[in-house]
Design a protein that fits this description.
Length: 298
């Protein structure tokens, strides 16, 4: 397969729309269709089901995407690293993180990165969730690893560095604390302590702190919290429950808190991001280092 064929297939597999795929790749919708048809003739099978209303991957197309995507990402990182080496990756890089799990990955990546780029220095700092994008936009950090989803026009999203099971943090005396797992519908039977902050994107809040369950049951709310430490203290005091990544348990566990996993919730994803206008070879090279490090950690 040619590289442009790979990019057309993977972009269409993500967008499931010929027009949007063409816009993203800067080619015509007709060329997208021709490329897909050429691949299907070559393989002797359908990769996409097309109707007048929708585009969907066939089972064979989905398998092909799942097998091709990791190799494509590895190729992109190899190209990025080669370009970075050619341009000379030097200087100071400030990197933010919003969770202790992400901090471990960033620290490990910085050690490897500095060893391989002796003219670089990596400095890390914590990003507070009540202002998750402020330090990035103010130039305090050059890139960061933060909870997804983020959809902002001035920010470029890199790959997901960590994916962890979503859970509920409950007081040890709460009935949920005796459960092996929970359903997202159980949100409606507890009082949620949400985060608050004028700078938090509304879509991010709606994703992580919904006001109703998938079936439409309202989720009771307590007074919002500004800092994560406040959430921990108030949950332990029995004021309510909170969303949590199950990977956080070894870092923030304390008396009075119980971590219960969801059995039907999407995982919590921590991804890389940087200002589009400030993208550089150094930023790209370190983003690749974070991804490589995350894959190598247990």
């Amino acid at each position: 397969m040619e590289r442009h064929e790979i990019e057309v297939f993977l972009t269409l597999a993500e967008e499931l729309h010929f027009g949007r795929t063409g816009e993203r790749l800067g080619i015509s919708q007709g060329r997208v269709s021709q490329t897909v048809q050429r691949l299907e003739r070559r393989f002797g099978l359908l990769l996409f089901q097309r109707t007048s209303r929708r585009v969907a991957l066939t089972p064979a197309g989905a398998r092909f995407r799942d097998e091709l995507l990791p190799a494509h990402r590895q190729l992109e990182r190899a190209v990025s690293r080669a370009m970075a080496a050619g341009h000379g990756v030097t200087g100071v890089l400030d990197v933010g993180y919003s969770s202790p799990m992400a901090a471990d990955v960033v620290l490990a990546a910085s050690r490897v990165f500095e060893a391989g780029h002796q003219d670089c220095q990596v400095r890390i700092r914590e990003i507070q969730l009540h202002d998750p994008l402020g330090p990035l936009r103010e130039g305090v950090v050059d890139l960061q690893v933060t909870e997804f989803p983020v959809d902002e026009p001035d920010i470029t999203l890199g790959p997901v560095a960590l994916s962890q099971q979503r859970g509920l943090l409950v007081p040890t005396g709460h009935p949920f604390a005796k459960c092996d797992s929970l359903s997202v519908e159980d949100y409606a039977d507890a009082v949620m302590i949400p985060l608050i902050g004028d700078a938090i994107p509304p879509a991010w809040l709606d994703h992580h702190y919904p006001r109703s369950t998938p079936s439409g049951r309202p989720i009771p709310r307590a007074r919002p919290a500004t800092f994560w430490a406040e959430v921990l203290a108030r949950v332990a005091a029995g004021e309510g429950v909170s969303l949590v990544s199950m990977g956080a348990e070894p870092y923030v566990s304390r008396p009075g808190l119980t971590f219960v996993p969801f059995r039907d919730a999407a995982p919590m994803e921590y991804g890389l991001m940087w200002l589009t206008a400030a993208e550089s070879a150094l930023v790209r090279a370190f983003a690749d280092a974070v991804c490589d490090t995350a894959q190598s950690l247990p």
